[in-house]
Amino acid sequence: MPDLSNARVGVIGGSGLYAIPGLDQAEELSLDTPFGRPSDVLRLGTLQDMETVFLARHGRHHQLLPREVPYQANIWAMRQLNVRWLISVSAVGSLQEHLRPRDMVVPDQFIDRTQQRPQSFFGDGCVAHVSLADPFCPRLSELLAEAAASAMPAGHHLHRGGTYLCMEGPAFSTRAESLLYRSWGCSVIGMTNHTEARLAREAELAYASLSMVTDFDCWHNDHDAVSVEMVVGNLKANAVATEPILNRLMLSLNEQRPSSAAHTALADALITAPEHVPPKTRERLNLFTRSYWGSFPQD
Ligand SMILES: CSC[C@H]1O[C@H](OP(=O)(O)O)[C@H](O)[C@@H]1O
Ligand SMILES: Nc1ncnc2[nH]cnc12
Question: Domain extents for the chain?
Fold first, then answer.
């Protein structure tokens, strides 16, 4: 198990969350990575004494489509900054009657319908197959749900568990698709979290999502089909609720620093023997593989 005593928490803010006002003494870091530049600068500061790194997923002015988000660079940068717990704050549509706009969901499963995303950090002569059976870290999700339940303002409701359908976008779903996803038992729909969670697992980061419901997508007879206006209106209310929840979460994370199966996800996932990995690939993956294979090039 890695040493978590100095590990940081990462927060990736999605639609509507472009900064955390209370991030004390935030320092801005402009990083380059072997996988390109992250979505924006990374803001490094403390929340409740917990070292926290914030990144706006779509850029602070929301300039990146879901498929244009540099997911690999974002996750690599987080890991480089010793982030080992990663929280996504995201806007989602509801696929179930009981999940209402302004409710919050901490999902525990995914169905992936994306087509144009990076699948992996691996390839180019290095093969790894991580487990995604439980794509969200159960312990981190539990702490996030506890924080949300105790710190969310009145008028919001929390739902633990549920399946996040990750679609390609950027257009919202057709009604037939929305009804299909409902028939599959999905809870919420968004365009980002699966890609991020899959890469976070390969980077050995524990991942959890605070999914904030902004609309009923387009399946509900009594509600208009989702529009950006609807999403943004509900997001503003939801974004205000985020900071007290994150503050509460940081208190428990700082106290518990929970280990996660995700922190050793590569232990039994790497197939290619290091001596058969091309040097360029080995160097690019060094951040993730060095605890198993030693540093490359050697220090
Ligand atoms: C602005 S509505 C669609 C957009 O919002 C969600 O983004 P994020 O997950 O980053 O909060 C959804 O996934 C879409 O990208
Ligand atoms: N209905 C919806 N579909 C996909 N992504 C969303 N983000 C917020 N609402 C959404």
Answer: 8-266
Beta strands in 79-230 (DSSP E): 83-94, 104-106, 109-112, 158-160, 163-166, 188-190, 206-215
Question: Considering only CA atoms, which residue is closest to atom 10 of ligand 2?
Answer: 93
Closest-lying ligand to the alpha carbon of 92?
2
Residue numbers annotated as active site? 215, 217
**Strand ranges in 144-202 using DSSP code E only, listed in sequence order:** 158-160, 163-166, 188-190
Summarize the annotated binding site as residue ranges. Answer: 15, 57-58, 90-91, 191-192, 215-217
The H-or-E segment that residue 76 falls in is helix 71-80
What is the residue with the minimal CA distance to atom 2 of ligand 2? 93
Superfamily of domain 8-266: Nucleoside phosphorylase domain (3.40.50.1580)
Q: Is the whole-model pTM more than 0.95?
A: yes
Which residues are known binding-site members for substrate?
191, 215-217
pLDDT, tens digit only, all 299 positions of the chain: 899 999 999 999 999 999 998 887 779 999 999 999 999 999 999 999 999 999 999 999 999 999 999 999 999 999 999 999 999 999 999 999 999 999 999 999 999 999 999 989 999 999 999 999 999 999 999 999 999 999 998 888 999 999 999 999 999 999 999 999 999 999 999 999 999 999 999 999 999 999 999 999 999 988 888 888 888 888 888 888 899 999 999 999 999 999 999 999 999 999 999 999 999 999 999 999 999 999 999 86
